[in-house]
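seq as requested:
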Amino acid sequence: LGDVVLALRRDAFRAAMNHDLSFYDKYQSGRIVSRITSDSDEFGRVAVLITDVGSQLLLSLMLFIILLRIEWRLALLVAGLSPVAFLVANLFRDAARRITQQSQRVIAEVNVSIQDAVTGIQVAKNFRREQGIYDEFRQVNEQSYRINTWRGIVLSTVFPTLTFFSSLATGILLYTGGYSVAHSIIGVGSWYLFMTSLDRFWFPMLQLSAFWSQFQAGLSATERIFALMDAAPAVRQVDNRPVERLRGDIRFIDVSFRYSEKEQVLQDFNLHIRPGESVALVGHTGAGKSSIAKLVSRFYEFQAGQILIDGQDIRTFDLKSYRRHLGIVTQTPFLFAGTVADNIRYATPGLSDADVERIARQIAGGDWLETLPDGLHTDVGERGSRLSMGQRQLVVLARMLAQNPAIFILDEATASVDPFTESQIQQTLDLLFRDRTSIVIAHRLSTVRAADRILVLRQGEIIEEGSHEQLMAQGGHYAELYNTYFRHQSLEYINSRPGARHVPSSGA
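struct tokens:
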């Protein structure tokens, strides 16, 4: 049993890791955790039942042969009455399966509630919502209790009900056998021996019938696990050619993409990014900036057109080897449990301590290491909770520098940091942009201006492109965005305010 659950949970976890992001858009993480853990345990119980069914079936067959040898006429009557037990068990089948499905759904809701409460505890405390979160958990937990209590009643009622019907069958046989003895159809000894053996026959038969209902209950868990494992990937590769190296030439040709039928993002979209070029994507929320980055990363499937990387269809690459050449930094940096050094070498586990320190000191001149309590050996905590947002971002940038990707994607990575940390990050970005293709999605002027080319998007279309100076001279949509969002972020503006602390530029 342990080996079965171990193998199933391992395969389910591997399947979850291999699914694309559209799968995670459909299912909450707590529900996925529930399928990998709770449903795997339920499947283990089904495996035990299958083993028991085999032994009970063999025992029933042997006892029926004995009954035939004792008195074949009564044995045929037993054979005619036995299906009644399976008919009764079948009545419980749908109820057992339905209540088990409800139980598994509510267990998943409990997991979601706990996970949300733990990960969002800081926000909850900020808004004094501890009691509210507890009340929500108590409600779903009590619902789980009620459903599981009813499930226990349904499953525990099966065997007593079957026992009642077996007693009726025994009464019928007792009467029939007694009548046969009275009329000298069978002997008293045969009748007595038959009735004594009948009790031994009923027990495995009742067990088999009860197993049927329990087996149906376990099947719902099995279906949920295999639905996770067998879900068809939305991202489909037509080939799996390994990618040894990339120049970073990216071309979108008449690409159409939508997250759902009602959410069209790109329509006949065309774009060419040359090798080594840094391109900044700007525009209002929903313009399609992050979608372009996700398509290059092959996190989602596009519905029409072509995306070519170095002239090759992106759908022909082996995704694991392709993504080794991608470096992605998001707005909310994710750090794994461990030290700063562990996180820097995450993509390149073979890096020596000396290499890790050398790379870390290239980030912002190495000054940020002095702010860490134990330097590179500082424990980052869960999801980097012991570091500031700026420190986390610098660790992630160091991780990218260690990876040395051919294509670098920066998705609003400076949106949540102060101008002083931004200047440190910008120094690193200048280093990362060098000699590699870069796609920058930014709400910070300094990051946008560092790009070779700026693309202005609106509703999935490129409406303007050029350098910062060219676009400002046009006085179009970019100039409007600059005056609305970017202008107050410039170092000249920040340093010109009364009493402002001087912030050095990234080139200083």
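The mean pLDDT is 81.
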